Amino acid sequence: MKAVSLGVFSVLFASRVLAAPVGATLTSGSVTGASFPEPLVQQSKVSTTSKRSGGGSTGGGFGGTASASLDVGTSGGATNVSLTGSATHTNEFGYTAAYTDAAVVLTLTEAATYSITNLSTTKVNNVSTAFNPVTLESATGFINPFSATRGELAPGTYRLRFGVAAAQPSTFSFSLVSTWYNQFNSTGCKDTSVNWTLSLRKPCHGDLNFDTFVDDADFQSFVVAYNILGCAQPGMPQGCPADFNNDGVVDDFDFQIFVVSYNQLICP
Ligand SMILES: [Ca+2]
Ligand SMILES: [Ca+2]
Description:
Elements: E1 24-35, E2 46-47, E3 64-75, E4 78-89, E5 96-108, E6 112-118, E7 121-124, E8 127-130, E9 134-138, E10 143-145, E11 150-153, E12 156-166, H1 178-182, E13 189-201, H2 216-228, H3 252-264
Antiparallel strand pairs: 1-2, 1-5, 3-4, 4-13, 5-12, 6-11, 6-13, 7-8, 7-13, 9-12, 10-11
Helix pairs in contact: 2-3
Bound molecules: calcium ion (2 copies).
């Protein structure tokens, strides 16, 4: 166990100024709808140049709807890439989906930290089940994950693949949406609700609660992690966010990084 002294800190006061959002745009790709028999495109593609995409389908002899929207917006100093959508169908046979048939490309003009918030659910055999509707892959960029939901992204391009679907996955071959269906390995999923957000922020080592300030609240979180020390130790927050230099421990080197941010108070 180690102890951290509060005495080295000076407290600065400043008016609340939210950080400028990270530069991020959707630069190519498309979303489209499909239904049984395979895949029957029923709505035209929508370009991502409008920063919004959508697709869906109804009919095909089974009755169902699907829609998806992928948007880029800013809120509280973060740039948020959000996928929302829903899908269901009323007949056991067939599927209804909105999905990326060409991966949407996210272009980052500067480095960013990211966090993923995923509240997506579907009913598998009538049991509500959480699932991940999006695959984030690097193209020219680089992903440095701290955990399954947090990490850093280098400037560059990234591919987003996703599906919003209701399906009978054991019955059909699914081609482009197969990766989405196959994670359930089930004969029925419906009532899908997708709510997935990738939040991008300018790197701000020390802001452990993402409020764009590095202050005493963050210091309290830092002390907890510092006293645990090892990122793999029990009790360490998921992703070890206080390990600012990514060496697997929260120690004096991280403390030195924290002090610099603490004295600046406001995230860049
Ligand atoms: Ca903070
Ligand atoms: Ca460290």
